[in-house]
Please model this.
Amino acid sequence: MARKVVVLGEVRDGSLRNVSFEAIAAAKTVAEGGEVVGVLVGQSVSSLGQELIHYGADRVITVEDEKLAQYTPDGYSQALMAVIGQESPEGIIFGHTALGKDLSPKLAGKLKTGLVSDATDLELAGGNLVFTRPIYSGKAFEKKIVTDGVIFATIRPNNIEPLAKDEARTGDVASLSVEIKDLRTIIKDVVRKASEGVDLSEAKVIIAGGRGVKSEDGFNPLKELADVLGGAVGASRGACDADYCDYSLQIGQTGKVVTPDLYIACGISGAIQHLAGMSNSKVIVAINKDPEANIFNVADYGIVGDLFEVVPLLTEEFKKL
Ligand code: FAD
Model:
């Protein structure tokens, strides 16, 4: 059954986030040959419209307003509701990002439809569109079929392969004028902590440190390895609580959920709350002095040893590649 599917493209620092392209790939499956409409919301975002088309969108609608320069749930929901009102889509796909997690339930409520949140896969099986999503902190997966209403889903970053970029693809980028009013929150400025290197939630390689790194400086060998592999540094809550690093690096149940291609856990015991955020990584390597550490139960490769000896050795070896 061909469907029209709307996809929200997420913009950060003037560029489209990767998850936008993954969402288009998911939308193609939902559309079953129908139309995929990209949506860009913000200020001066229309120049990014063609890039969404290069990754598979058929056309793009932009809603631009200075009041949308920063994300607010009120402003974005007004913009999206106007697009949805105009397009009457049968499917809506967002990334399962901080923005997507915040906005999608609000819109689903307004649309009086259900929401499949945090999907890691979707496929057509037996004539049905079947979503897979982790439950119980990633210890099990459930399959979901939407039987009624708009198919509204958020997809977890780094799980669905984007389509290959095709710069020959063309499509219409049209603006929709929406009066953004009655905002209950106005963001005047965003003061960001200086973030180093790759965005943790979209990183393909993560080197994570736990209480075993023992100090702020103990993260230095992990940063060097991350630099060599083009990855990001993450942390357990143990390391954050001990003040070795910032909470923005925390991975787990109460931190970020990540699914990189490679996750190297250094000096992390593998508490269930940490596993909730990383156990779906494609390849997990654990480095721990304690052969009984729980992290080895989820690791594809385990190295029993001192991280301060093992990590620099790995860095030297990877430098040779
Ligand atoms: P530890 O458990 O102290 O482990 C340190 C490990 O380092 C040990 O296994 C030790 O053998 C090893 N080690 C020490 N020195 C070395 C060395 N030189 N070389 C190699 N290995 C070494 N935790 C999270 O991570 N994320 C969350 O989101 C999260 N949310 C939580 C939510 C709730 C409600 C609660 C109650 C807890 C949560 N926790 C979370 C905390 C969690 O239960 C653990 O306390 C925490 O993950 C432990 O961090 P850790 O593994 O770094 O420290």
